[in-house]
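Section 4.2 – Deliverable D4.2 (structural model, holo form)

The reporting period included a commitment to supply a predicted holo structure for the target in complex with VHF. Inputs used:
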Amino acid sequence: MGKRIVVKIGSSSLTAEEGGLNRLQVRFFADEIARLHASGYQVLLVTSGAIAAGFRRLGYATRPKLVHEKQAAAAVGQALLMQAYQEAFNASGITAAQILLTRPDFSNRGRSQNATRTIEELLKQFAVPIINENDTVAVDEIKFGENDSLSALVANLVKADGLYILTDMDGVYTGDPRKVPDAKRLERIEVLSDELYQMAGGAGSSVGTGGMRSKIEAARIAMQGGVPLFVGRVSEPGDLAEAVAGTGKGTYFASSLQSLSAKKHWVGFLSVPQGRIVVDAGAENALLNRGRSLLPAGILRAEGDFHPGEVVEVVNADGRILGRGVTHYAAWQITAVAGLSSEEALKRIEVPRAEVIHRDEWVGSSLIKEASSHE
Ligand SMILES: Nc1ncnc2c1ncn2[C@@H]1O[C@H](COP(=O)(O)OP(=O)(O)O)[C@@H](O)[C@H]1O
Ligand SMILES: N[C@@H](CCC(=O)OP(=O)(O)O)C(=O)O
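Output (structure tokens):
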């Protein structure tokens, strides 16, 4: 693995069941990261723990269950968490920076580009970006809830060379070791099988959230982004360096060989389609079987109001979704030229090129379905 890494630390590693932050643990992880930083690694830290760190201070006896209570606890705990990291990193002369993200920050290309630019600048200045979900504003429908998926999206966003998900278990087992005592550790995972999803259970403690299930989901996202991943435990000085060296206490996941380009990954998995283009059988065949771009000649009509640069779904006349891609035409422009030859279309409207969706910005639905069949 290379030199830019994302390290994710779960609530279970930073806080106690009864709530409150374990400052010794924060210091320990900061020292582990500082060690790598000193040897030239760019490290991004995705940290959980805000809710667990804050709920007791706010007067709740146990980790709250209601959304607004969790949000209030996170508002208190996030400040405590950052304060602890600032202190711990300061001791090694490292500047820590807080970044709070929500799902739309990944699905909106403009926002994700802004986040990337900020992160790149921080790394250029040798700072360590410390990332968490922006819990106080994330509403239920768009919430990650756990930080495993968030860390995988961050790893893809910054094109990390590796993602290290640190937890209280030394890897992925054939069953939850808390419940299945003879479960065996899996050293290396190449393919995310259905069986694996069944082996992965929920959280192990009252402070953890996603359990192994959400770590497998994170693996899916990272593998598709071409980022290799480690899930395991870092408990002794030097353990993180060992994990990075490939000899850590945990499970290694290979990155998918056929990883998608960052653009295709965004189109297929992060974008929100803004409308539909209905195509004829010829265009369907060209897109699905011949790896071609979509031209005006194969289009029957546009549905919805979309603009150039937005992602649209492409469907056939029966309404079957064929895939999605970035449109270079606005909906009204498609209406003006649907069914025409490229030459004729370019005479009638002003567009930079004839392709309505270029094949490099197209992801077929079989790929999207295959990836989301486990969701
Ligand atoms: N197949 C499995 N292998 C290992 N751990 C598992 C498995 N299934 C469920 N778990 C549970 O997942 C827990 C780690 O996830 P979680 O509690 O969410 O921690 P974190 O806060 O670090 O994200 C472990 O403590 C373990 O009990
Ligand atoms: N954003 C939340 C994360 C919640 C959580 O417990 O996540 P995780 O430990 O990754 O399962 C927090 O900081 O409390």
